[in-house]
Design brief:
Immunoglobulin-like, extended, 5-stranded antiparallel β-sheet, 20% helix, 2 helices, alpha+beta, 4-stranded mixed β-sheet, 163 residues
Length: 163
Amino acid sequence: MLFSGKFIVFALIVLTGVVGALFIFMGPKALQTNPGVFHLGIRYADEFGIEFTRYPKGGPGAVLEIIDSKGQIVERFDGLVMGRNLIPIDTNKFQENTYRLKISSKDYHTQVIPAHLKNKTFSPTTDATALNLGQNTSDTHYDFSFRDNLLGVRLYPLKYSVD
């Protein structure tokens, strides 16, 4: 069965229009924070250095541990890569409470960020904003941005020095 060239071109234009309309209609909704999915972005302070090439494409692999107010690990996510990682928030495991989000990676400083869970959305606590404000010592390097269900973290190497 052969189709004429003008029908194929017309079908491609219509298909492009439909897909474009869907992006315009659904795009803003897709970018909003979605309750039940936690977005964790991970970057490394030395990722553009030559020494970073010893790691595979996604980086050395990070670990997210969600710790409850009693100090028990509720959930652990291994093998998180550089860039955005989507973390499901299971209502069977989590209750509305205060948690600590512990992000660690081999050869990098660990960051422990307090968060509050409400309506399947992790939000920063008032203590979390104070961690970024110049309290970095040789042992801690806090560099993150935290909004509702969106956390961006930059991990610093253990041998990193602040100049």
